[in-house]
Every structure is written in C-alpha cells, then in structure tokens.
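Appendix B, Record 12. Input sequence as logged:
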Amino acid sequence: MGPMRERLSLRSGAVLFALWLAGLIGFAVMAGAAAAFSRFPADLWVSHRLQDIDSAAFARAVDWAEDLADSPLLLVPWLGGVAVLFLTAKWWEAALLLFSGFARLVNSGLKDVVERPRPSPDLVDVLEKPGTFAFPSGHVVGAIVLFGLLFYFATALIKQPLLRLLVQAACVYLIAFTAMERIYVGAHWLSDVYGGALLGAVWLAALVWLHRQLVRD
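Logged structural output:
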C-alpha cells in the first residue's frame, strides 16, 4: 500500500506541476502578445459593459475592494495577517505572507519590459490614469497573492467554521471586485487583468507548494 500511495503522490505532483507550468507559459504568451498589441479583441467590449453599470452600490463595492488592495490600506490585512500568524507561533506562515509582497516588485519590473500603454480616453472613460505601464495589473497580482494566501491559511488554520467562512468570503470579494474595479475606472483592459490573474495564480501556487513542503510532518 505504501509504494502505491507514493506512486499516486508522484503522479499527482507531476500533474500539478504541469498545470503550474502551463499557467506560467500562458502568462509568457500573453505578455508577448500584450507587448505587440495595445489591446485584445474582447477588451473594449468588456470595458464598455462594466462602465455601463449605473449603480452607486456597485461603484462603492469596487472602490472599497481596490482601496484594500492598494497602499496604504493594503498594509492592514498584509502586516496585520503577518502579526497574527507570528503571535500564534505560525512562523513559516508569517514568513510566507510577508514574502508575498515581493510579487508586486516583480510585477513592476514586468510592466517595464512589456511597455503596454494604458487604455485611451478616446475609447473608454478613464477615471484613473496611473503613471506606469498597463500589463500586467499590479493590483490584481497583489490581490490574488495576498488574499489568495490568506484564503488558503484560513482554510488550513481557522477551526471555527463561521470565522473561517467570513475570512474566505472577504478574500474572494476583495480579489473579484479589485479585478473589476481596474477595468471599471479605465485603468486597465480585461487582458491586463487576466494577465495579472495568471501571474498572481502562478505565484500563489508556488507559495502554497512551498508552505506544504515546509510544514510537512
């Protein structure tokens, strides 16, 4: 039974690595296309559909999410989470959550390599015009890595079902609505957001894998 379990574990690990590698390659392909084209075919249509939403509640929901995915408010869930993990003697978890912030620095370097321009005011309503390049979306990368890792830690560490569900729901909300907000305000195209989601997912998967290696019995 032991050797069979080991073979199944190796096969499962190979499949997961293949999926991770496919995500990384997919991001690289998207980055190359983003460097060549200022927008993708579906980008303008999605931007118009989101910007056509005439709802004050939706506008507030996306704004609140983006605020918590950007500094200075980003420091509250990020460093607050690190502090809670440290104080509860979850040393590896605290270190990995602290390290997760490095994803934004990598993202900034990739923006300068791809050099994709932001959406033009001639095509969409531009309510926010950052001074950096567009691809990939740093807000989305940061939200997926930080709140995705917090979701994972909540699933693994929080024993109280209601508290665990609340933390998980908050993480999902912050990721999803941050992604929509970047298109809603005209700061990014859908493809910028999707590229950020791919990069964030690849980074998050690597952190989860590393955590499982570090805490393995």
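The chain has one domain: 2-214.
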